[in-house]
Specification:
single chain, 266 residues, alpha+beta, Alpha-Beta Plaits, 3-stranded mixed beta sheet, 3-stranded antiparallel beta sheet, 8 helices, globular
Length: 266
């Protein structure tokens, strides 16, 4: 049975509609969105910090600034070390001199032989101090990063192996990501005028190298590993020992784990 040319075209049009791709398939992706598909999905980069080993030397901060082109003098940095001094009267003192650029004075006596510990420029006798310790901090590379959610241009994105990065070419410096981060890990780069943060030295770890701060730490207070590798030494510690994360109540699922994290740490 033959059909008219009109019927043939009508049936062809219906077939074309049935097999057509949805408009969403033609959505143009930004460079940052394209980069978000990079990385090895078999890897989940995580960080481990042992607060019991950190002595506040600041070598990690120096190495990070040198490696990632962050000016040395301004008090901004991708990672820093906080000094906590807990007094017997319950007061908690927290400070990060020069962003951790310099060796921090010990809570139980300075490196120059001082008997007292200085807090806010004042000497505190040792008998008033209950305990003191140092806490390194860096971007938590969250599983549910608030910074990615609020970026209006897609400049902040998360790779398949769990690292949150910033595309400097796309960042407009609005500051939304800086305000959204509950850990205060972001800042404005004083030279590039864009949002800046720790990236786990992504350019190094993807080539089989250690991060600059891990390599610089003489006490092995910092380690990085692959959480999806059950034989990774870092993974074994996280899965089998008592570890903590910062501000777990925010629900961002941070992936920087701490050994010996004191309850006074904020």
């Amino acid at each position: 049975m033959s059909c008219s040319r009109r019927d043939f075209l009508k049936n062809t049009f219906k077939t074309s509609l049935a097999t057509a791709l949805p408009l969403s398939a033609f959505k143009m992706l930004s460079p940052a969105e394209v980069k978000a598909y990079t990385g090895d999905p078999a890897t989940r980069w995580v960080f481990l910090v042992d607060t019991q080993k950190c002595v506040g030397c600041g070598l990690c901060v120096k190495a990070c600034k040198l490696e990632n082109e962050v000016p040395y003098d301004p008090p901004v940095t991708r990672t820093w070390v906080e000094r906590y001094v807990i007094l017997k009267n319950g007061q908690t003192h927290i400070e990060t001199p020069l962003g951790g650029n310099a060796l921090i004075e010990s809570p139980f006596g300075g490196r120059d032989g001082y008997i007292d510990s200085k807090i806010d420029g004042k000497n505190i006798p040792p008998d008033q101090i209950a305990k003191g310790f140092f806490v390194p901090k860096l971007c938590n590379q969250c599983d549910k990063p608030a910074c990615v959610q609020v970026c209006p241009v897609g400049a902040t994105y998360r790779t398949l192996d769990g690292v949150v990065l910033v595309d400097r070419k796309w960042c407009i410096g609005c500051g939304y990501c800086i305000m959204a981060c509950p850990y205060g890990m972001r800042f404005f780069h004083p030279v590039y005028k864009v949002a800046e943060k720790c990236t786990f030295c992504y350019h190094r770890i993807t080539k089989g190298m250690k991060t600059a701060c891990v390599q610089a730490c003489p006490f092995e207070a910092r380690q990085i590993g692959n959480l999806k590798d059950p034989n990774d030494p870092v993974t074994k510690i996280i899965m089998n020992e008592r570890v903590s994360v910062l501000k777990d109540e925010y629900g961002t699922k941070p992936q920087v784990y701490y050994i010996g994290l004191d309850t006074n740490v904020r």
